[in-house]
Design goal:
The chain contains 20 helices and 19 strands. The chain is of the alpha/beta class. The strands form 5 sheets. An 11-stranded mixed beta sheet has the order 17-16-15-14-9-8-6-7-4-3-19, with helices on both faces. It is globular, with a radius of gyration of 26 Å.
Length: 626
Amino acid sequence: MDQKRHVVPLGARAGRGSRAEPAVSLADRAGVVPAVSAMPEPDGIPFSPYPLAEDDGDQATFDRMLHAFLGRFTLGISPESLIAAYMDWLSHMAASPGKQVRLADKALRKFSRLCLYATQVSRSPTTPCIEPLPQDHRFRDPAWQRMPFALYYQSFLLLQQLWHNATSGVHGVSRHHEHMMTFVMRQWLDIFAPSNFPLTSPEIFAATISSGGENLLQGVFNWWEDVERNLAGRPPHGMENFRPGKNVAVTPGRVVFRNALIELIQYSPASETVYAEPVLIIPSWIMKYYILDLSPHNSLVRYLVERGHTVFIISWKNPDSKDRDLEMDDYLKAGVLAAMDAVTAIRPDRGIHACGYCLGGTLLGIAAAALARRRDGRLKSLTLLASELDFTEPGELSLFIDESQIAYLEDLMWDQGYLDGKQMAGAFTLLNSRDLVWSKMVRDYLLGKREPLSDLMAWNADATRLPYRMHSQYLTALYLNNDLAEGRYIADGAPVALSDIRIPVFAVGTERDHVSPWRSVFKVHLLSPAEVTFLLTSGGHNVGVVNPPGVAGRHYRVLCQGPERQYISPDQWFATVAPQDGSWWPEWEKWLSVHSGGQEPPPDMGAPAKGYPSLEPAPGTYVRSP
């Protein structure tokens, strides 16, 4: 069969702000499922359930061009949002003399403690007057306990604590603005941390003396190499060692379906028999899929295949400016539902164990609710990896989400048709700038050392883009309005309810997740009456999921609760459920096995007679697109 038959043309869509005709989704053109992506108003005029702002002529266009220009220098962060947060804090602080007196008292007491500490540590090592936070590793070297470096870092930590007190707890400041102020102040202070300068850091100072300044010279070479790579649009140093299909994403398989949005990979069996029900994995579209198929030793896909599971995974296309009008419904119907159609054709009369990661899990939750609404029983279970369904507490990511911020991003994407992966990565980098920015700069440019790039670091640098319309829709509908959890989210022309999901759910949260905080993931207990197995694992959003057996220091907690459960808070759950050592992967694989049928011979690769031929070897074409 001709491979071209499986490529769905994007086609033209009505222009932005046009009300001449309903928007026709990519999935409708592909004939994936019968659907309506725009609903008529009473007067017959079509409208989108998640409209973008209308153009108001040349003046609005000029404003958008200005915002798009400025956004390239601010990493897409709205200056107006920052100004609003500052003015909210400043005006309430000015009207809080009691708070000012308390801060002055704290400052005096901190200065007194620092003076006492300075007199004691100058004679012999003594207990610090303030300890770094557990996640702050900048001052772990014993050399920081000697003068004058001890005085430098203690002064910095006390100042950091004082500013945190100043920017938090001001009566009347909105919670969002308070979080923004504490975050921004922490970013500014981290710039001037003593660990960032040769004369105030014992590690840099000692390296400079011992090498005669060679570390600084090597740091200049490293810096210039990074500048050249950035200007030329080349990947970071070391990326050449991690190429999909060569060093990563090497689990054997075949692409068995392709449209204009996804490639579906079916992995080759590694056992004589397999479980009857296949596993379909939906990664987030803001990342390349191969985070779940990195090197052979830490590939979740390989782990499942070797234990007798038939695994399919979606590889999302990396969109460009031509894809600016792709919608959330396109990702639902031409993505998840199209993949399910293919899996059902290849494995007929078998339920599907569906697994979603990050926003892929959110989209899977939408799909599961939509399927339950129309009584489609193809899903046998639902696994959500670090995926939120309720967005009232999205963690530090909410710092970049408000009306002003979304409007600013819309203008930036309006200009180029998408959100560039580097622009999106900038926000995530700021959430952990201490480790991802300053510690890296110290290591590469001041100590003159290059840390070898790991497969996970290389994947993280393999950025993707986000289409203009889709990105604006999910930020507005999910993060800003929380429509999904509150029953207002429109999918396939009608609202969906997560309470319709009755199949078993396995939800994974990670302890140090900045993107999908585990307490937010835990809210699945409130949203679905199904049996819920909740697992909390050590690590963060990526490391906690890429968690193969055999790695020392890993642990997890897990508890299964049936439909008749009584709700307990996340903190109660954490205190009640005992930790277990090791990786969570065997626990999930055991759960899949329990919810699966018997063993049978492996299926064929694809189903040519049903329109799903084997097209090419994994990892396919889309994952290689720059």
